[in-house]
Amino acid sequence: MNDGIVVIVLAAAVAYGTPLLFAALGELLAERSGVLNLGVEGMMLVGAVMGFLCVQHVGGSAGVALPVAVLVAAVAGAGASLILAFLVITLRANQIVSGLALTIFAGAAGLSSYVGNDFNLADNPARFSFRDLDVLGLDGVPIVGPILLGQSWLVYGSWVCVVAVGLYLSRTRPGLNVRAVGENPAAADAMGIGVARYRYLHTLAGGALAGVGGACFSLALTPQWVDGLTAGAGWIAIALVIFAFWRADLCLVGAYVFGAFSALPLILQARGVTITPQLFQALPYVMTIVVLVLVSTGTARRRLGAPAALGTPYVREER
Amino acid sequence: METERAYQATAAVPSGTAAVVMRGITKRFPGIVANDDVTFEVARGEVHALLGENGAGKTTLMNVLTGLYHPDEGEIEIGGQLIELHSPRDAIDAGIGMVHQHFRLVETLTVAENISLSLRDRPFVLSRRDAVREVQRIAEALHMPVDPEARIWQLSVGEQQRVEIMKAVRSGSQVLILDEPTAVLTPQEAQSLFETLRVMAAEGHSVIVITHKLHEVMAVSHRVTVLRGGRKIATVRTAEATVESLAAMMVGRDIELEQRQDRSSPVGEEVLRADGLTAAGDRGFDALRDVSLVVHAGEVLGVAGVAGNGQRELAEAITGLRPLAAGVVTVDGRKLGGGDPREAIAAGVAHVPEDRLHTGVAPSLSIASNVVLKSYRRGGVTRGPFLLLRRIRDRAVELIRRYDVRATSPEVPARVLSGGNLQKVVLGREFSGRPKVLVVAAPTRGLDVGAIETVHDYLREAAADGVAVLLISEDLDEVQALADRIVVMYEGAIVGERDARTATTDELGLLMAGVR
Amino acid sequence: MTRPAVRIERRLVQHRWLAVVVPLASLAVAFAAIGLVLAITGHAPWATFRRLFDAAFLADGALSNTLVSATPLAFTGLAAAVAFRMRLFNIGAEGQLYLGAIGASGIALLFAGQSSVVIVPAMIVVGAAAGAAWAAIPGVLRAFAHTNEIITSLMLNYCAALLLNYLIFDSQSYWRDDSATGQLFPQGKMLADAASWPVWTIGSIAIPFGFVVGLTVAAVVWVLYARTRFGFEAQVIADSPRAARYAGMRTRRKILAVLCLSGAVAGVGGASQMGDFRHILDARGLQQANYGYTGIVVAALARFNPFATLLVAFLLGGLENAGYTLQGADFPSGLVGVMQGLILFAMLGGELLVRYRIVIERPGRIAAAAEASA
Asked: Structural domain of residue A286, as residue ranges?
């Protein structure tokens, strides 16, 4: 039964969806504070390359190198997002153009490629990588086994993040504050909430999570370094946040749905089934458009929709 | 006017340490000095009115006190201690709370959540139950009922204001500042607000009321400070002042409060007819319910009512900015399909909108561009698809001259104009189209007395020229002074019609509050 | 008593010279940063700059190659400028270019027997139409369903890429080379010779027809926005959609029209790729080139002015060209992206200084001012 196509697809969906999930959670935090981060793709690549670099050069066993690599990936992602944050929050630059600039700077023809080539990272596969675990030896359990209990630490880590982000936004004071900042920064400012500080922190957190998402590629999925490894996952993560109505729990669902659609064509092909792969691959994008249209109509917007101040810089003394 | 005088504060001005002293405050913005060496102080337990026309610098001064703006010169003392306010946080910590004209509420959050946001004691984990109980406690103490779980966008404007006040109180403000608080209230609601303010003052709070309404000052304050053109003119005890003396200080000359003028020309044929207009508002429920009215050529029909009772939607429905769910608008016999501004414009309906800066003009474009905002389609300024820029400039220069607009050139962006000058541009543009109907909404909101006079003159002139004028305004004085007939709107419907010559303020006020 | 506060304040007076000095200063800062990155990673900054400049503009054939790189950027840059000026953030130039390429190559294959005089204009028209049609999707959604065009146009880029892949790799489409080798190594059909766009040679520089078309488009766009009713309405809508509606302007139609225009320009860029340079529907090559996204950078640097867009496209084209030419063991790949990014960062950041100024406050200042006025 565990060899059945459904189970295999679902298990792969979880694995493929994990980098998307990390990046989406990060984007969610940034957007909730009002910053539209279009540089996610670049941040993921920077995280991927730095994590890979770390794992190739840090001494010690897998148990040491891998966590350190993930940490380095997070820091690298945060560092990249610091540039965006500075541009957009302090210098009041246009968020869209700045995000694109960051992706070009850090992305497949930019910094990540620069580092990758300078250190000849493409030459060898990762020394260590995240393997699928066999939790409690229950890998053989029907259905649940491979899907839920046979995943890597990164996957389980992502679940913890989902819960953490969700609780943070709905149950904590800083979470309430950031929601206010994203909806009405003038109101938040008047109540003494530091708009710039919240935006910075959440953008950095977003960058860190994006970096970890990138590391999922170079340390688990492919475990190798290739230029442009993430192949657009960052852009999908942006779409994911909308698809998830800006909620952490739905990000999980969405990430796995998208993951399934990415994994499905390959699995089908391996089975000798020939359905045009592009149809499946296009589905997530089309679905995102549909969701976006639904979310954008009138009253739905208020109940389900984007933080109202998303994308606009905040200047206190504007007259 | 009689009722206001009866409520005039009779209590002596409290003495003791000043709660707030602002000394020598100067604040500049591009092209204007908003506050010029202003010194202002408020005592504990006092209700102090800050009076002035719009543009006098009242809001700016208070924004300095609340840490939103940083003064270019001057110092602030709170409770006897010199203090520097770098941000709203500092002001809140120092005990200053403000209820703004435009509420600082987060629409998608609940009442309880909004109030939680302003708290200074901060547990990391939120407890919804505690927040709700907190809200109920404050609401009871201030006699202001409100549903803690309601989302802000579901509340009426008056209810939102209550939430704002509760926020300020809850965050421990010793000094409460209210910016034009009665702009959105009925006369009766305003009285109840004044009661609340007196209670708060009696308990030792200091209350500053920013206003341009003279009878409010007389009704609620112990002292009043008058600002004009960015400078402080005087601080007087309210008991020793009269409406006329205050007005003189506000304007700088003796003025007579506006009197009705008798009609100079006879009223003509019916030009504008609205039958059974029903339209949905922005919040989902009907904002207009079966509204019918008629305006004749040369007549001014005043639509009175507290803002938020459907007036804006009425103006939008007639001018095509809002689609009609039911009903018909007829202009000079021609039925309009509704929902199409271009159709209304073509039928001869001119519109001076409520929000002159964001709807009436394109703020970053030049005055010249704005002058041809509607007429660029017709001949005279275009040749085929191309614009004749020279001719457009000439038109603008002509308008600036004729309406005495204070602007350095027709190329400056519209948004640098003062409220009065901007309104002149809009009015001038609308008149120049030779309209049959002129719909004006809140035409003198935010204007100084001089500009108000000018606008009123233009409106009377329009009526004398045979234009059917629909005047929608929340300023009852204005409506009574200009209109021939008055209808009152309440909750989207017309609840009464009166002849302007015989209607009394009390009568109209009751209608405005929904009492028949 | 407190530490100095740093604030950012709106300038009271906006000096004219700022608009010139700030971009130049930003450029200088950018190059300094690039030099720093190079130095840290062990490459000699000046030498690298000189090699880049040489490869971009001075070497034999450099200018011609630069024009090859610049032409697609001119189109996608203009496409972005057209839309962004009206605050419509069309990120979909990438996909619209693909569709233009598909359309143009399709019509060229269809008209294979015809002469250039027929094929070339046909390619331009069909390319523009295909790009416009693809842009109409986010256009309609934005105009009539208030759906944010950033995400929709972005998603459609992926769909367009998938379409390209489908046509060339996973189907027996009209575009696919159906010869024996074509079955083994999927690729597009070669276009007829008549479908090659003309090239004009001035001295040693080869100017592709596409670049000339781009010049024309820039001029048309400029006139459109600065001197026509269309442009006036676009200005008003960009500044205040409410005022536009109030004035009776057909806002929704205008939004759709501008997005379609933007898509059409990108589509012609795709046609140019077919006619000027590639002569084959090169799915992989087009996707790797990222013309659409770079075009946005071009337009942003040019502040969305059509003629400046051409200039910036030329300069960035030079940079891209140099990047290809110098690729090798001792030249850092990825440098092109880094440079573009840093220049853009510097420009974006510099823009702030035009409208705002930085005020550093010393604690003693206020007290001193108070004394002075007392």
From this structure: 5-304
Q: Residue C162 has which token pair?
A: 């998938």
Residues A95 and A88: their CA atoms lie apart, in Å, by: 6
> Residue B187's pLDDT is what?
67
Partner-chain contact C348 A116, CB within 8 Å: no
- If you average pLDDT over residues B62-78, what whole number do you get? 89
Task: Pick the most confident of A21-25, B4-8, C23-27, C343-347.
Answer: A21-25
8-state DSSP, A307? -
In a domain, A319, yes or no: no
**What is the CATH code for C65-330?**
1.10.3470
Residue of C nearest to A292 (CA): C147
Residue B121 has pLDDT above 90, yes or no: no
The answer to whether residue B358 neighbours chain C at the CB level (below 8 Å) is: yes
> Smallest CA–CA separation between C201 and chain A, in Å?
32
pLDDT (mean) for B471-484: 88
Other beta carbons less than 10 A from residue C314's beta carbon: 21
Q: DSSP 3-state assignment of A181?
A: helix
Out of B1-15, B147-161, B269-283, B482-496, least confident range: B1-15
- By C-alpha distance, the chain A residue nearest C170 is A276
Q: If pLDDT is split at 50, 70 and 90, which confidence band does C368 have?
A: very low
HEC letters along B7-71: CCCCCCCCCCCEEEEEEEEEEEECCEEEEEEEEEEEECCCEEEEECCCCCCHHHHHHHHCCCCCC
CATH 3.40.50.300 fits domain B2-95+173-251: yes
C-proximal residues of A, 3-42, CB under 8 Å: 36, 38
Contact partners for chain B, using 3 or more CB pairs closer than 8 A, are A, C
Q: What CATH number does domain B270-512 carry, 3.30.390.50, 3.90.420.10, 3.40.50.300, 3.20.20.100?
A: 3.40.50.300
Provide the residue type at C294 as one letter. T
Question: Would the pLDDT of A287 be above 90?
Answer: no
Give the residue from B73, B13, B94 showing the smallest Cα distance to B48.
Answer: B13
A118 in a structural domain? yes
* Average pLDDT for B306-320: 87
Contact C246 B360 (CB under 8 A): yes
- Interchain pair C293, A103: CB under 8 A: yes
Q: Check whether C373 has a pLDDT greater than 70.
A: no
- pLDDT band at residue A24 under the 50/70/90 scheme: very high
Residue A315 counted as domain residue: no
CB contact under 8 A, C155 and A117: no
Domain count, chain A: 1
Cβ–Cβ contact B363 with C under 8 A: yes
- How do the domains of chain B map onto residue ranges? 2-95+173-251, 106-172, 270-512
CATH number of the domain at A128, please: 1.10.3470
pLDDT band at B260 (very low <50, low <70, confident <90, very high): low
Residues in C touching A319 (Cβ below 8 Å): 10
> Does A278 touch chain C if contact means CB atoms closer than 8 Å?
yes
Cα separations (Å) of B485 from A128, B132, B266, B477, C122? 86, 47, 14, 14, 67
CA B488 centroid distance within chain: 18
CA of B286 to nearest chain A CA: how many angstroms apart?
14
Domain regions of chain C by residue span: 1-43+332-374, 65-330
* CB-count burial class (<10 Å; 0-12, 13-18, 19+) for B391: middle
ipTM for the predicted complex comes to: 0.80
Q: Are C246 and B351 contacting, i.e. CB atoms less than 8 angstroms apart?
A: yes
Tell me which residue of B365, B279, B302, B300 sits closest to B512, measured CA to CA.
B302
Q: Does B307 score more than 80 pLDDT?
A: no
- CB within 8 Å: C348 and A90: no
Residues 6 or more apart whose CB falls under 8 angstroms from that of B124 comprise: A172, A173, A174
Residues of chain B neighbouring C243 (CB-CB closer than 8 A)? 358-363, 373
